[in-house]
Design brief:
A three-stranded antiparallel beta sheet has the order 1-3-2. The longest helix has 16 residues. Helix 2 crosses helix 3. The protein is mainly α. Strand 2 and strand 3 form a beta hairpin. The chain has one domain: Arc Repressor Mutant, subunit A. It is built from six helices and three strands. Bound molecules: zinc ion. Zinc ion (ZN) binds next to helix 3.
Length: 125
């Protein structure tokens, strides 16, 4: 196979992972922080099983890294540069940063996680 095809395959694979709206939502909700699944549930209004499935794919493709602490697992972006890419595309589509707030806002409405409730020493999810 020629090199240019290998390179374009690799880039296409990256965009293929990003081509699922829920995955974009997860990446935006994680942002430059470390979050637990309950935060993603509150932001995306999805069941844990659905979120876990997409997190698995994002981990496989090295976009998200998981860290276990006690009974909680926290997720962060391996390379937060992917956020600039998503925000650039949003801007090209005429979407304002304020409209992206639905994913990035903290505290998220109804979320019990310690990120959204810094007064809680222990995670409540
Ligand atoms: Zn939260």
């Amino acid at each position: 196979m020629n090199i240019s095809l290998l390179v374009s395959d690799q880039i296409a694979e990256f965009f293929e992972v990003l081509s699922v709206p829920t995955r974009l939502g997860i990446l935006l909700a994680i942002g430059e922080r470390e979050v637990c699944v309950c935060h993603l549930k509150a932001v995306l209004h999805l069941r844990q099983a659905a979120i876990s499935q997409h997190l698995q794919r994002l981990k496989q493709s090295q976009m998200v890294v998981a860290r276990r602490q006690g009974r909680f697992v926290y997720y962060r972006l391996k390379d937060p540069q992917v956020l600039s890419l998503i925000f650039d595309v949003a801007r090209m589509q005429g979407i304002s940063p304020e409209q992206m707030d639905v994913f990035t806002r903290v505290p998220a409405e109804g979320c019990l996680c310690s990120l959204c409730n810094p007064q809680n020493e222990k995670n409540m999810c």
